[in-house]
Amino acid sequence: MARHAWIAGTLSVAKHVAVWALALGLHTALTSDASIPFAVVNGGLIGLMVGIAERAFLDGALRRRRRRPFMAVIAQRAAVYTTCWVTSAVVIVGTVLATSEWSLANLSGDDPRQEDFWAYYNSFRPTNISLQGALGVAFLLSFARQVNALLGKGVLLKYVLGKYHRPRTEERVFMFLDLNSATTIAEQLGPERYSEFLCDFFFDIGDEVARASGEIVQYVGDEVVITWTMAGAVRRSNCVAFFYAVAGRIQKSKPAYMAKFGVCPDFKAGVHSGQIVVAEVGKERREIAYHGDTMNTAARIRSACHDVGANLLVSDALLARLDLPADIHAQAVGPLRLSGRDEPVDVHSVSIGPAD
């Protein structure tokens, strides 16, 4: 899992480098007479700095502060993006150019490359529209990221592209995950403390969902509903490995939970796959909704965890398509008669650890 996280982080930084290099190169080509190579190099360096800042600061130390106001997050991100932009333009690119064949000391007075250099360098003066544009772009990027986080991973793009403007059928995997002993914990902590407890729990879940290529559909009370495309679910058995990644994260955070709340989350989940209809619904408040028996079955499987004494139940229909890691084991618990279904559903209890 650590290796996959490192690869994902590296790809994220590389994506920033490519996007910023392309964007700044195109911007310069369309709006300025400055050197396009300068712009591409600068864009790549900005992307490198932004990518590293995202991983180490915005998604690292700063993110550990957890709940922050919407506008505070936007301002923090915009400040980091702008700092990367200005630092790259004024310091890094200037240093590279000053110590290379493009150094002003190596260029004759009538060398046209001097004009290229100063045109590009001057575009970053505080009074210049390029810097003002950088501030605007930084704010818009930060705002878009926060809206995307508010709606859910990738939902904003789906709205923009109209992917589900008309209902469409997809094969998906759903997990219904909720707390054990939620009522007891709520009574112990009281309403506000219990809400804070859930926020911390859902925060920990959210980080692992992103790593497992999943999407959070909704939160309902102490329950979270997660979905994967079939390809994303079966890749590295993400839909099962995710459960144990969350368990490991919660175990690692147990001292913090105990110190803060006096109790640590324990949870169960049911997982099922099948055909589902996805569509944009609503008028005053629109959302992307999922309809079909697959969701109902996944929820019923989750409810059966208590009856069979299991923390994780997976339908046989899905399990047959997974290549489980060596340390994850499945044991048949027999056909279960689930509420609302005429036919029993074959399920397996899944556990982690050495084989019996």
List the topology elements:
Blueprint: H1 2-31, H2 36-61, H3 70-98, H4 112-122, H5 129-151, H6 155-161, E1 168-179, H7 182-189, H8 191-211, E2 215-220, E3 223-229, H9 230-234, H10 238-252, H11 254-261, E4 267-281, E5 287-291, H12 293-303, H13 305-308, E6 312-315, H14 316-319, E7 328-336, E8 345-352
Parallel strand pairs: 4-6
Antiparallel strand pairs: 1-3, 1-4, 2-3, 4-5, 6-8, 7-8
Helix pairs in contact: 1-2, 2-3, 3-5, 7-8, 8-10
Would you kindly provide a written description of the structure presented here, covering whatever features stand out?
By secondary structure, the chain is of the alpha+beta class. The protein has helices at 2-31, 36-61, 70-98, 112-122, 129-151, 155-161, 182-189, 191-211, 230-234, 238-252, 254-261, 293-303, 305-308, 316-319; strands at residues 168-179, 215-220, 223-229, 267-281, 287-291, 312-315, 328-336, 345-352. It has two domains: 2-151, no CATH class; 155-352, 2-Layer Sandwich (Alpha-Beta Plaits), CATH 3.30.70.1230. Helix content is 57%, strand content 19%. A hairpin with a 2-residue loop joins strand 2 (215-220) and strand 3 (223-229). Helix 1 packs antiparallel against helix 2. The radius of gyration is 25 Å and the shape is elongated. The model has no long low-confidence stretch (mean pLDDT 81).
